[in-house]
Amino acid sequence: MEYEYSDEELELLKRRRLEQMMLEAEERRKKAEEEAAKEAQRQAILRAILTPEARERLANVKLVRPELARAVEDYLISLYSSGQLRGVVDDNTLKDILAEIDVRTRREIRIRFRRKGG
User: Fold this and answer.
1) What is the pLDDT of residue 2?
2) Domain map of the chain by residue range?
């Protein structure tokens, strides 16, 4: 059974769909702006608490292991936010933090070989 839409109904449907798409686009834009603002705030905090050498090291780690870099950033920001961080974090301190978090977050990978017929 086929239904014929009148021109008015079709225009109404088109208008509703366009309004819906515009609302969704606006929501996506707002969400992207909020995320960009949060990221800018994170980067401002990291610039304030890390020495240039430590920031460079963290940027290099982010290229190779973004999940580790993110975990370290989260850790440093939480220390800063709670007032537990005194002074700036230098490169050697960052190395220690990276090693500690790497050990905590690293998953052990096991490879097992099965022999045929055995």
Assistant:
1) 63
2) 7-105
CATH node for 7-105? 1.10.8.140
The dihedral sign for the CA sequence 45, 48, 51, 52: positive
Read off the pLDDT of residues 91-113 as tens digits, 9 standing for 90 and up: 999 999 999 998 887 777 778 88
Q: How far apart are CA 73 and CA 59, in angstroms?
A: 11
Whether the model clears a pTM of 0.90, i.e. scores above it, the answer is no
> Is 106 within 8 Å of 65 (Cβ atoms)?
no
Which residue is associated with the tokens 């301190």?
93
d(CA 65, CA 102): 10
